[in-house]
From TrEMBL:
<dbReference type="InterPro" id="IPR029039">
    <property type="entry name" value="Flavoprotein-like_sf"/>
</dbReference>
<keyword id="KW-0411">Iron-sulfur</keyword>
<feature type="domain" description="4Fe-4S ferredoxin-type">
    <location>
        <begin position="187"/>
        <end position="216"/>
    </location>
</feature>
<dbReference type="InterPro" id="IPR050157">
    <property type="entry name" value="PSI_iron-sulfur_center"/>
</dbReference>
<keyword id="KW-0004">4Fe-4S</keyword>
<comment type="function">
    <text>Ferredoxins are iron-sulfur proteins that transfer electrons in a wide variety of metabolic reactions.</text>
</comment>
<feature type="domain" description="4Fe-4S ferredoxin-type">
    <location>
        <begin position="217"/>
        <end position="245"/>
    </location>
</feature>
<dbReference type="InterPro" id="IPR047964">
    <property type="entry name" value="EFR1-like"/>
</dbReference>
<dbReference type="GO" id="GO:0046872">
    <property type="term" value="F:metal ion binding"/>
</dbReference>
<dbReference type="InterPro" id="IPR017900">
    <property type="entry name" value="4Fe4S_Fe_S_CS"/>
</dbReference>
<protein>
    <recommendedName>
        <fullName>4Fe-4S ferredoxin-type domain-containing protein</fullName>
    </recommendedName>
</protein>
<dbReference type="Pfam" id="PF13237">
    <property type="entry name" value="Fer4_10"/>
</dbReference>
<dbReference type="GO" id="GO:0051539">
    <property type="term" value="F:4 iron, 4 sulfur cluster binding"/>
</dbReference>
<keyword id="KW-0408">Iron</keyword>
<keyword id="KW-0479">Metal-binding</keyword>
<dbReference type="InterPro" id="IPR017896">
    <property type="entry name" value="4Fe4S_Fe-S-bd"/>
</dbReference>
Length: 265
């Protein structure tokens, strides 16, 4: 394998980007980041290594940091790139900075960083993306992908700098969420309502193994939630709510990604 593209996703945007990139890069393999993999030895011989992840509360999901810490990179001089998908205009937050710091701890470079805006996947009124905007973003993604892939094939070095004040504020927001969720688990707000048919899709799709089925209903474990919202967004009955905020709000997942692509049997 020449290129390993690791992705984390809740609702398929990052998987779509990873898959599309792999179409333009010879001998590229797309690999999901999931909790289950953390118990195995993780290593790669790939010459180029990519990470495609969503921005969540301005930064990267904790599981992605743990995965990178765990991953043994065997190539002596790898080309490493990161792509963040984000829902807000210019909403990539501190993702690039975090990747640089994580990789530097392993004496690895972040060779290039890219960001692609995709539909926002948070089912709250303020964040909903209109259908027209979704179409525009999907089209834009198909234009960006070949350009990014060409940079990767040419091993271009692409740095990204963020306004220092903005970066400082975003670091504060990210840290605030990290601290508050360590004190009070964020998944305390989830519950399944009477529409639940006990199909267990929510439990299977959770990349963090944070949902178990108890008495045929999902039970959030309150220990490892990444707040990716895969559970809420892939439930076929729209039976999962987060407090009262999500009641009556339309759900989203990338239209070209199937739930089966995210599930390990
Ligand atoms: C809890 C939560 C927090 C988010 N925070 C941000 C953010 O800080 N900036 C941003 O641009 N998008 C944010 N988003 C939107 C996602 O980054 C975006 O929709 C992404 O493409 C989802 O990718 P996925 O489908 O691969 O999970 C957030 C989404 C969720 C669910
Ligand atoms: S995915 Fe929805 S319907 Fe299926 S078990 Fe979970 S909450 Fe119930
Ligand atoms: S419980 Fe839901 S939001 Fe939390 S990590 Fe699992 S799928 Fe994502």
């Amino acid at each position: 394998m020449n290129t390993a593209i690791y992705y984390f996703t809740g609702t398929g945007n990052s998987l779509k980007v990873a898959k599309d990139l792999s179409q333009y890069i010879e001998d590229a393999t797309v690999i999901q980041i999931r909790q289950e993999k953390m118990s195995h030895q993780l290593s790669t011989n790939a010459k180029a290594i990519g990470f495609v992840v969503p921005t969540i509360f301005k930064g990267i999901p904790k599981l992605v940091s743990q995965f990178i810490n765990h991953l043994e990179v065997k190539h002596q001089n790898p080309y490493i790139f990161a792509v963040s998908t984000h829902g807000d205009h210019n909403g990539m937050g501190i993702v690039c900075k975090q990747f640089k710091e994580l990789l530097a701890k392993k004496s690895l470079p972040l060779s290039a960083y890219f960001a692609i805006q995709m539909p926002h996947n948070s089912p709250v009124k303020d964040h909903l993306t209109t259908n027209q905007e979704k179409e525009r973003l999907f089209k834009e993604e198909t234009i960006q992908i070949p350009v990014i892939a060409e940079s990767i094939r040419n091993r271009q070095l692409i740095s990204h700098t963020r306004n220092k004040f903005k970066s400082y504020l975003e670091t504060l927001i990210y840290s605030y969420h990290a601290i508050s969720t360590s004190k009070k688990p964020i998944d305390r707000g989830f519950y399944a309502d009477e529409k639940c048919i006990s199909c267990s899709i929510c439990s299977k799709v959770c990349p963090a193994q944070n949902i178990e089925m108890a008495d045929n209903k999902p039970k959030w474990k309150l220990e490892n939630c990444q707040f990716c919202l895969a559970c809420i967004q892939w439930c076929p009955k729209e039976a999962i709510q987060y407090n009262k905020e999500t009641i009556g709000i339309e759900r989203y997942h990338h239209p070209e990604i199937k739930v089966t692509e995210l599930i390990i049997d």
